[in-house]
Design brief:
Layout: H1 2-26, H2 37-47, H3 51-61
């Protein structure tokens, strides 16, 4: 059971860090300009496949269904 708690905490930490990274990279999409667009555009090809999954996870985590 102790291992389960560590694994669960690691998964939650990873999800939080992924959310932070996606906000920094594609924050302009939701109105949060964090870094200059030049760097966002350079990172965009790396995160494009994950954008839809990220939006769904963020909306689900914050219970904003239908937004």
């Amino acid at each position: 059971m102790t291992g389960y708690e560590f694994a669960r905490h690691a998964i939650e930490t990873r999800a939080a860090l992924e959310n932070l990274f996606m906000v920094v990279v594609v924050g302009d999409m939701i109105g949060v300009p964090v870094i200059p667009p030049y760097y966002s555009l350079r990172l965009l090809p790396l995160v494009t496949p994950d954008i839809v999954r990220w939006k769904r996870r963020v909306l689900h985590d914050h219970h904003l269904h239908g937004v």
